[in-house]
Amino acid sequence: MNGRILLIFWLVVFLFCGLTSYAQKIGTFQKSFGTKNDEYGASVLELPDKGFLLAGITGIKGPPQGSPGVYLILIIRTDSLGRQIWSKTYNGNNEKLNGLWYLTDFFAVVNLDMTTDGNIAVFTSEGLNGLGSGPGLYLPGYSYLFKINLDGDVIWSQNYDVYGGGLAATTIINQSDGGYLTLATGILSLLPAPYRIIRQRLTTVIKNNDTGGVEWSYIYFHQNNKISDIPFRMTICKGGYLITGCEQYDTNFRPNDTDGVPIGFFTNKIDSNGALLWSKKYSNSNNYPVNPYSILELPDESIYVCGNYDRLPVLIKLNSSGQLLWTKIYTSLGSSSGKFMSAFYETSKNVFDLSFSAVSKSHQRIGMMQMDTSGKILLEKIYGPVPKSSGYPTSFGNDFVQLANGGYALLQSTG
After folding, report:
1. Coil vs helix vs strand at 96
2. Largest Cα–Cα separation, the chain
3. In DSSP terms, which residues pair with 107 in a beta bridge?
4. What residue ranges in 209-275 does DSSP mark as E strands?
C-alpha cells in the first residue's frame, strides 16, 4: 500500500465557562497528496500568502528487515485551500547516496523555516540508514541544509559531518542575523567512511551563517561513553535554548534504537552561543522508552515536555532548572499505542494545545487535545480513523503548527 501525505487544516475557537467547554470549527479542509511511490510527511509551514509548504520524503521502501530504500526529499507548495501549486524533489549534494534521508527513531526529518529574506531553509539528512540487520554497517550520513525560494529553486546548499561519523538532522531555528541554529545527532563511529559501526550518538548544535557556513559548533558528550544521547527537539527559551531527547545504553554498539536499552530522557539548556548552562538526566528504572518529541517554556519559566512513555502519550513538567516535578501518562485514546507530537501554549487561556497520534492493529487516529497546565484534559478532537501504513518506517512523525489566524495545521502520513 502506497503511503500518502495527509494535510488536515482547521481553525478552532475554544470558549470556556467554568468546567464547560466547546469548540467551533471554522473553514476546515482536508487534502491528501501522493503518487505511486511511498510518501511520508514531516513538516508543514504557513506562508505569508496563507498558503502552505509541505515537506517529506518520497521513494520506494526497502525490505521489511533491510535498508529503508531509496527516498528523495519532497516539497509541495499549496494555496490557502490546500490546492497544489507545485511539487519538487531534491536529492542532496551527494548523488551517490541518492539523497537518502536518515531516520531518527523511524521518523522522516525534513524541517522547514522561513528565512529573514522571505525564502525557505530546509534542514534534513542524506545517507543510508543501515545495510540490513547484520553488524550495523553504515554508509556516510550527513545533515543537509539548503535554501530555496518560493518557487522551489535551490539558492545554495551545504552538508555537514562530525568526526567522520555523520550527522542526523533534527531541528532548525532561524536567527535574527539571517543565519540558523541547527540541532542534530552526532554519530561517533568505530570505523571510518565508507562503512561505520555506531559507537555513540551525541547532541550536536551548529550555528550557521546566512549561506550555510559554520560559525561555531558544540558537541555535548555524555560522561558515560556507552550511553547515547539522541536529541529530538530544540526550542527558544529565556536566556537561550532548550534541547530534549532520549537516552539509551548501547550494549552492543549497534545502530538501531531497538538494539539499545532505553534508560530515560535528557534536557539541556544552552545559551545563545552554545555554552551548556545545565543538563539533566531522567532515569527510567523500568527500561521503557521515553521519547520526548516536543519541549516548551511557559512565561513563568516552567518547562513542559510531551511525547510517549512505553507507547503511551506522556506530559512531563519540569521547573526552570530542569528538576522533574511530575509525569502524567494518558491511556484514554483507546489504542494499543500513541504519542503526543507537538504542543503550543495559549497565554490568554493558560492552556496547551497538543497533537497526538494513536495506533491500533488496523488503524491510526490523529487529532488534538487541549489541557490546562496541571495536565487535565479539557477537550479532545479526533480525526480518523485512517488506514495504518504498512510501509517503512513502521511509525512516523507528523507536524502540528500554529497559524497566524489562531488555527492549526496538522500534517500526517497515512497508509
Report:
1. helix
2. 62
3. 104
4. 214-220, 227-237, 240-249, 261-270
Cβ–Cβ < 8 Å for 146, 77:
no
Average pLDDT of the segment spanning 131-151: 64
Does residue 384 have a pLDDT over 80?
no
Phi and psi (nearest 5°) for 203?
-70, 130
Report the C-alpha gap between 147 and 161 in whole angstroms.
18
Residue 80 burial by CB count (10 A; 0-12/13-18/19+): exposed, middle or buried?
Answer: middle
Q: Please provide the size of the chain in residues.
A: 415
At 82 the pLDDT is 86
Q: What are phi and psi of 181, to 5 degrees?
A: -115, 125
pLDDT in tens, 174-226: 898 999 999 888 776 655 544 445 567 788 899 999 999 999 998 887 777 67
3-class secondary structure, 385: strand
Q: What's the rounded Cα separation, in Å, for the pair 174 and 189?
A: 30
393: DSSP letter = S
Contacts of 182 (CB under 8 A, 6+ apart): 123, 143, 145, 160, 169, 171, 172, 173, 205, 206, 208
Question: Residue 46's beta-bridge partner residues?
Answer: 52
Nearest-CA neighbor of 170 among 202, 143, 138, 200? 143
pLDDT over threshold 90, residue 242: yes
The identity of residue 309, as a single letter, is Y
More confident site: 411 or 27: 411
* Cα 170 to Cα 186: distance, rounded to the nearest angstrom: 11
Q: What are phi and psi of 339, to 5 degrees?
A: -160, 150
Phi-psi region of 99 (alpha: psi -120 to 50; beta: other; left: phi over 0): left
Which cell goes with 180? 540558523
Angle subtended at Cα 144 by Cα 143 and Cα 150, rounded to the nearest 5 degrees: 145
Number of Cβ within a 10 Å radius of residue 112? 22
Q: With contact defined as beta carbons under 8 Å apart, do 80 and 49 qualify?
A: yes
Three-class SS state of 258: helix
Locate 221 and state its grid cell: 558528550
Distance CA 5, CA 386 (A): 12
Percent of the chain with pLDDT over 70: 66
Question: What residue has cell string 489504542?
Answer: 335
Segment 34-75, tens digit of pLDDT: 777 777 788 889 999 989 999 888 775 554 444 445 677 889
Tell me the CA distances in angstroms from 268 to 105, 231, 303, 315, 378, one per residue in order: 20, 10, 12, 18, 30
Query: What does residue 301 show for φ and ψ, rounded to 5 degrees?
Result: 70, 10
3-state secondary structure of 53: strand
- 390 — phi, psi (to 5°)? -105, 5
